[in-house]
Amino acid sequence: QVQLVESGGGLVQPGGSLRLSCVASGIIFSINNMWWYRQAPGKERELVAAITSGGNTNYADSVKGRFTISRDNAKNTVYLQMNSLKPEDTAVYYCNSDIRRPGSNRSVNYWGKGTLVTVST
Predict the structure, then answer these.
(1) CA–CA dist 86, 56 (Å, integer)
(2) C-alpha span between 68 and 47 (Å, rounded)
(3) Cβ 89 vs Cβ 95: under 8 Å
(4) 58 vs 5, 36, 115, CA distance in Å?
(5) DSSP letters of the chain?
(6) Cys-Cys with 12: which of 16, 19, 52, 115 at CB 3.0–4.6 Å?
(7) What is d(CA 113, CA 115) in angstroms, rounded to the nearest whole number?
(8) How far apart are CA 106 and CA 99, in angstroms?
(9) How far apart, in whole angstroms, are the C-alpha atoms of residue 97 and residue 105?
(10) What is the pLDDT of residues 11-54, one digit of tens each?
């Protein structure tokens, strides 16, 4: 069974920073693309950042220049460094990834359960 587990959320003041982590566990052959999404109260889930297996990245316009996505393939982990946080960044942040298991010739998409980030005074 493959699981994605996020951590690092919490309460932070505007202008502050947080670093989210997402670890993929289980019997894994390879991890392809990895994404961070977020869902604010009353809003739809939106894509925040993406990173390919080769390290190419892409960001939502709302977080460009403030957030950085990275990954450690040896640890099956993706990170989201969030700086200059704003109240509108308040949301549950979800990890998403395409993962291939041994013996399979295709990847399966997995979601974590999310971690809450609250930006407030």
Answers:
(1) 26
(2) 13
(3) no
(4) 22, 11, 21
(5) --EEEEE--EEE-TT--EEEEEEEESS-SEEEEEEEEEE-TTS--EEEEEE-TT--EEE-TTTTTTEEEEEEGGGTEEEEEE-S--GGG-EEEEEEEEEE-TT-SSEEEEE---EEEEE--
(6) 16
(7) 7
(8) 8
(9) 16
(10) 999 999 999 999 999 999 999 999 999 999 999 999 999 999 99
Nearest alpha carbon to residue 38 among 117, 99, 98, 110 = 117
Q: How far is CA 95 from CA 4, 45, 64, 105, in A?
A: 7, 12, 18, 23
Which two tokens mark 26? 């289980």
